[in-house]
UniProtKB/TrEMBL annotation:
Keyword set, alphabetical order: Lyase, NAD
Listed name of the protein: dTDP-glucose 4,6-dehydratase
NCBIfam families: dTDP_gluc_dehyt
Residues passing through the membrane, by range: none
Cofactors: NAD(+)
Gene (UniProt): rfbB
Amino acid sequence: MKKILITGGAGFIGSHVVRRFVTQYPNYQIFNLDALTYAGNLENIADVDKSPNYTFIKGDIVDADFITDLFQQHQFDGVLHLAAESHVDRSITDPLAFVKTNVIGTMNLLNAAKTIWKDNFEGKRFYHISTDEVYGSLGAEGLFTETTAYDPNSPYSASKASSDHFVRAYGETYGLPYVITNCSNNYGPNHFPEKLVPLFIHNIINNKPLPVYGDGKYTRDWLYVIDHAIAIDLVFHEGKNHETYNIGGFNEWQNIDLVKLLCRQMDTKLGRAAGESEKLITYVKDRPGHDLRYAIDASKINKELGWKPSVTFEQGLEKTIEWYLANEEWLRNVTSGDYQTYYQKQYL
Ligand code: NAD
Ligand code: DAU
């Protein structure tokens, strides 16, 4: 039986990865380590909570002694590391929190893996989940490939770039068997409503303004979260050690066009007159250091591992909207309390 540690498994992407591993691999013992910050929520994985091959551990990856003890106790065979501070806007107001979790936290996991695996790396793997933001910003042309030079612009992307470098350095220096993936923007169920898609769904439901940063011409490459979880499963099992794979949706949208599509789909789902939700669009002050365009060249993972997205953006967005409308209690729970304070500070 393999013992697999998944960090950040109560968050958005992590919860889909945990669900996939617990249900697809009953012969693995899955340990989900999560500090349950504002972004972590056990409701996201309540459906697998009672599975015999699943254990939840509440804990902070920044606590080096705790992490060392955990690795000594469980002797994990593999690590899928997703725990992170993940929101660019929060990194602008509190950069140090991002250094602690994303850099120090990753270092603690690397040190613990290196210590317990020692020279015996057979069958072991450290999988670091990263972002396309480490590559910086594209102009109108071109795509990020695995060999694009790192050029991060926000405290968030700088902290993720730093953690990627440390993972690679542990591979080169100590022979740690690692893989890294750099993925584009995810959307889908269980997404905390501080990011564009879930925030705007929440605001449309509540007839609140849709705060589009700057001129709305910024471009992102969107991927349905379950397709990301499938790619992570594939890379964990079939990716080559010491390699990086870019993951993306082949799906670029300018923010304003995405928001208009979302408004149209929401009007239909909510039985509103066509054009009703678009009236909520409000242009607001731009994000400082806002990256103009991200777009991933995912041909390596496509050619080498046969992965490609399984849904179109229109299908994925529709499934996402349906999930939020069917899970209003989840939305209500995560938007009470601290969320209101965050929202006031960020937008009002
Ligand atoms: P998220 O913010 O939804 O979840 C992060 C999870 O990590 C939460 O459950 C939180 O409680 C946990 N966590 C935070 N700090 C911790 C700590 N110190 N110790 C233990 N747990 C801690 O993030 P997400 O959007 O699911 O992103 C997951 C990973 O994927 C991140 O590494 C992120 O950089 C990367 N990524 C995200 C996207 C995206 O579009 N969301 C795209 C590419 C890559
Ligand atoms: O590219 C991958 C990254 O995608 C991940 O690494 C990050 O963890 C994830 O948060 C996401 O980062 P972005 O900054 O691209 O996502 P966000 O949803 O915050 O913003 C998407 C775009 O929408 C961006 O151009 C900023 C804009 N935006 C965002 C918010 C929250 C708005 O115009 N208004 C908003 O209120």
